[in-house]
Amino acid sequence: MRVENWASKLELVIKELKNKDKFIFGKNDCVTFVINSIEAITGIKVFNNKYKNIKEAKKIIKSLKSKDLLDIALKIAKENNFKVIDIDKAQKGDVLYYRDTKDLDGTLGVCIGEKVMFNWKQNIVLIEKNYCEKAWRVE
């Protein structure tokens, strides 16, 4: 269930992301952005494992008996009752997965309207929803 004033709380997370100087694994990356967004929307911390680099992130994935970031996202979504939805139905605050060939074979982002915001190493990127592979309703 979304908390009261979730939209303004999500805006604070987005503003904080935009004001951060650099990408740092485990502190300011795609996963922490999504975790912080979900917490702002629901009041629930869905993932609390710590990592400082991509190697440590991959160890966490393996320790959780997962094959990649998508697999962990699917497990967390199921544990928290976040339903898989049609990508075109994603609305502000929903989480989307975009497959790429980078570090974890994909990345997670947050729907901010017609686009999805991702926190990538190079910078913050906005992508059309239809380029994403999976979407979850966060509530």
Please tag this protein with its features.
139 residues, alpha+beta, five-stranded antiparallel sheet, 17% strand
Q: Which helices and strands, and how do they pair?
A:
Layout: H1 6-19, H2 30-42, H3 54-63, H4 69-79, E1 95-99, E2 106-111, E3 115-119, E4 124-128, E5 134-136
Antiparallel strand pairs: 1-2, 1-5, 2-3, 3-4
Helix pairs in contact: 1-2
Describe this entry's structure for a reader.
The structure is a single chain. By secondary structure, the protein is α+β, with helices and mostly antiparallel strands. 35% of the residues lie in helices and 17% in strands. It has helices spanning 6-19, 30-42, 54-63, 69-79, and strands at 95-99, 106-111, 115-119, 124-128, 134-136. A hairpin with a 6-residue loop joins strand 1 and strand 2. Helix 1 (6-19) packs antiparallel against helix 2. The longest helix has 14 residues, at 6-19. It is globular and about 35 Å long. It starts with 5 loop residues before the first helix and ends with a strand. The mean pLDDT is 94.
Widest β-sheet, arrangement of strands: 4-3-2-1-5
Q: Radius of gyration in whole Å, from Cα?
A: 14 Å
Principal-axes shape call? globular
Total of DSSP H or I helical runs spanning 4+ residues: 4
Number of strands: 5
